[in-house]
Amino acid sequence: MQERIRRRLAGTREAPPPQELSAYTGDLNVSLDRLPVSPERLRPAAVLVPLVERGQGLQVLLTRRTDHLRQHAGQVSFPGGRAEPGDRDAVATALRETREEIGIDAGFVRVTGYLDPYVTVTGFCVTPVVGFVRPDFTLRVDEIEVADVFEVPLEYVLDSGNHQVRQAERDGRRLRYYVIEYRGRVIWGATAGMLVNLYEKLRA
Asked: In the 8-state DSSP scheme, what is residue 14?
């Protein structure tokens, strides 16, 4: 599986500046002329899509955000966040945020490629950075931001039978979004959309 992922993601690149987007996946499922904000106002961000190398197979590491956060409270997410001025690129953002949120240092991660840029309803343009993670890390969780850390078998995520599509109303607009349920946990929105994008890239 690792070789398949490396092969499929070979040559993928981080998201261009938001104003240069020509294609993306996103919360709204609309064309580029109907972004949540104008392209120049989209804020760059990055997440790490961590694939932990366990003996039983690759596992997707996910976090659940604490309930008191201003944005995305209680949601399941990848470690990551907005780019900061000192970040060299999307990889630097994703690895810095991963270290800050759950304590996994960059030395445990081998970056292998990128998924498609993802535009969120909150106005971020997110670069998903895919990396293999050595399993001998020790978590150091930032309890202000992260309520829980858990893993889901990649094989489960890549089974299209576990991909649900749901609808909701937002500001008078009907939105469609992906949901993946696993042992009582609900992965939805941007995180589920990125996982489905990984499935699509590996299926191609």
From this structure: P
Query: Among the CATH numbers 3.90.79.10, 3.20.20.70, 3.40.50.1820, 2.60.40.10, which is that of 2-203?
Result: 3.90.79.10
Please write the tens of the pLDDT for every residue from 46-88: 999 999 999 999 999 999 988 565 555 568 999 999 999 999 9
149: left (phi over 0), alpha (psi -120 to 50) or beta: beta
Which spans in 85-187 are helix H?
A: 90-102, 154-157
Contact 98, 109 (CB under 8 A): yes
Q: Which residue has the tokens 């937002």?
A: 170
Q: Which two tokens stand for residue 127?
A: 């670069």
SS3 203: helix
Share of the chain above pLDDT 90, in %: 65
Domain residue spans of the chain: 2-203
Please calculate the CA angle 178-30-38 and round it to the nearest 5 degrees: 120
- Give the whole-angstrom CA distance, residue 27 versus residue 190: 6
Provide φ and ψ at 44, rounded to 5°: -70, 140
Residue 155 token pair: 């094989």
